[in-house]
Amino acid sequence: MSEPFPNSIEAWIKHFESNTIPILTKTRSALQALIAKGDDATVLDLAQIVRHDALLALQVLRYLQSHRSRQQHTDVTTVERIILMVGVNPLLDAYAQCTTVEELLGEHGGALHVVRSIMFRAHHAACCAEVWAGYRHDIDGTEVVTATLLRDIAEILIACFAPKLALRIRAMQQMDRRLRSAMAQKAVLGFPYIDLQMAMVEQWKLPPTLRMLMDEHHAEHPRVKTVSTAVAYARHTSTSWTDAAIPDDIQAVADMTRLGYDKAIHVTLEASRKAYTSWAWYSDTEPAPPPADKAMQEELSDDNTQTKSQP
Predict the structure, then answer these.
(1) In the chain, where are the structural domains located?
(2) DSSP string covering 112-151, please?
(3) Where are the alpha helices (DSSP H) in 52-100?
(4) pLDDT single digits (tens) 171-202
(5) Does residue 165 register a pLDDT over 50?
(6) Residue 32 and residue 28: Cα distance in Å, rounded?
(7) Which CATH class is domain 106-297?
(8) Do 88 and 41 form a contact (C-beta atoms < 8 A)?
(9) Distance between CA 179 and CA 156 in Å, rounded?
(10) 94, 100, 286, 290: most buried, per Cβ within 10 A?
């Protein structure tokens, strides 16, 4: 996308609406492989693919809204239920030939890395949210998973369609580690990603339940906290497995699941390991894997000790 860039949230949304939203190359290949299975392709097969790609998840939700019948009075809030309602084949027909992120950003290697890393982070967060929601006995864990997967979709879309701006924001944060993300985003775009995020889900009429689960104004709601903690933990661990914010993330997990600190470390790292088995979906280079439980426990114990010893 060339300058001048859209100058308002409304203009950005119109820009996204006027362009084809891409998916990852690995996602398109997986969809085409599923087509080859013919009648053996299942709802679960397609749902697993969608869970790897936040951009495809967004499009599946929007597909249902655009094909919604007058007889549909109940919101459908999860990827799995949408596939059940719409059917596997119509969705494969709609997206198996989609433009890819790699094609869109072929000349912007740095931005491509950013988009892939954010999408890996979203997948990682969704895996964690699913596990934590299970321990919380959430009323519908799949809603929490869907909301978590989509939580950073505004950031992903900006990186896809305005790579220079996304890289500028990231460079500002790298130059000043104390600079808050929202401040860097506002300095470059005129607004933080979360404002664009909430405007998009409103404009595109995503289900109110999903809107609520992404909304910072409901931050103390246990289901919203599951989403926000998963997003924060995935963001922090994408920087380093020894990031200074991870102890607080684990404490939040321990509090909301009532598992205790060490058990919270164990179930969270199990979810991380599951997510990291899919690293090749997002990168040509294998990232640092999650540490062993004991190594994480020792690292966090040292951090807590140092914190308590500070005057």
Answers:
(1) 10-95, 106-297
(2) HHHHHHHHHHHHHHHHHHHHHHHHTT-TTHHHHHHHHHHT
(3) 54-66, 79-86, 88-95
(4) 998 899 888 999 999 999 999 999 999 999 99
(5) yes
(6) 6
(7) mainly alpha
(8) yes
(9) 20
(10) 290
